[in-house]
């Protein structure tokens, strides 16, 4: 059963120039995906963002699509949409954990990502969460991406004052700074 608990939501950020968002959706459960997309598009529109939408086969492919776009395209933020419903095997845990882990790692590398991949026990839970008039998790994912875009732009404007090496250093998750002489 879905909770009726009210949660605080930040106001959408205001941008000088429109944010460009890539929504990547896994439409395995089409009716759920459509609700998530509607919510994400409406939220992006309210913030004046420009949206591109692509589909991938499943939730596991969403981080890969973001990684490719992050290297090859020019988006400010990314919105992951999909639904994973628990079944009879451990595949549910694999898909939930690995898609989430992939998105987290990309976020730690600097991509502004809103995660709207639902992980639920049944279709009823998914319907409530996907409904733009209900919990609107698609809209929430778009809002999260937009807030991270706003932070990125804020910090980019501040420049690299006081940062050794300026923009030449690249931080690796499992390594040292490139171009660094520190040992």
The run of helices and strands is EHEHEHEHH
- Widest sheet: strand order? 2-1-3-4
* Average pLDDT: 90
The residue ranges in which pLDDT falls below 50 over 5 or more consecutive positions are 164-172
CATH topology: Rossmann fold
Beta-strand level of the residues, as a percent range? 15-25%
Percent in helix: 40-55%
Coarse shape: globular
Question: Can you identify the CATH superfamily?
Answer: Lumazine/riboflavin synthase
Tell me the number of strands.
4
Q: How many individual domains?
A: 1
Q: What's the assembly state of these chains?
A: single chain
Keywords: Riboflavin biosynthesis, Transferase
Family: Belongs to the DMRL synthase family.
Binding site for (2S)-2-hydroxy-3-oxobutyl phosphate: 88-89, 129
GO molecular function: 6,7-dimethyl-8-ribityllumazine synthase activity
Explained architecture:
There is one protein chain. With 183 residues, the protein is an alpha/beta fold. It has one domain (20-160): Lumazine/riboflavin synthase (Rossmann fold, 3-Layer(aba) Sandwich). 42% of the residues lie in helices and 16% in strands. The chain is built from five helices and four strands, in the order E-H-E-H-E-H-E-H-H. It has a four-stranded parallel β-sheet, sandwiched between helices. Strand 3, helix 3 and strand 4 (113-120) form a beta-alpha-beta unit. Helix 1 (30-46) runs parallel beside helix 4, helix 1 crosses helix 5 and helix 2 (61-72) runs parallel beside helix 3 (91-108). The longest helix has 22 residues, at 137-158. 5-amino-6-(D-ribitylamino)uracil binds at residues 28, 59-61, 83-85, 115. The active site is at residue 91.
């Amino acid at each position: 059963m879905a909770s009726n608990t009210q949660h605080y939501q930040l106001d959408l950020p205001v941008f000088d120039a429109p944010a460009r968002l890539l929504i990547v959706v896994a439409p395995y459960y089409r009716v759920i995906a459509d609700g998530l997309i509607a919510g994400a598009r409406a939220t992006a529109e309210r913030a004046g963002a420009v949206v591109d939408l692509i589909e991938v086969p499943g939730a596991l492919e969403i981080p890969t699509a973001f990684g490719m776009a992050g290297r090859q395209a020019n988006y400010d933020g990314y919105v992951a949409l999909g639904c994973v419903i628990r079944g009879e095997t451990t595949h549910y845990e694999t898909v939930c954990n690995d898609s989430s882990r992939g998105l987290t790692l990309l976020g730690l590398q600097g991509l502004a990502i809103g995660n709207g991949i639902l992980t639920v026990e049944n279709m009823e839970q998914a319907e409530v969460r996907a409904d733009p008039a209900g919990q609107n998790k698609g809209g929430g994912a778009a809002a999260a991406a937009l807030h991270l875009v706003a932070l990125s732009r804020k910090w980019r404007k501040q420049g690299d004052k006081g940062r050794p090496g300026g923009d030449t250093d690249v931080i690796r998750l499992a390594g040292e700074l490139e171009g660094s002489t520190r040992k």
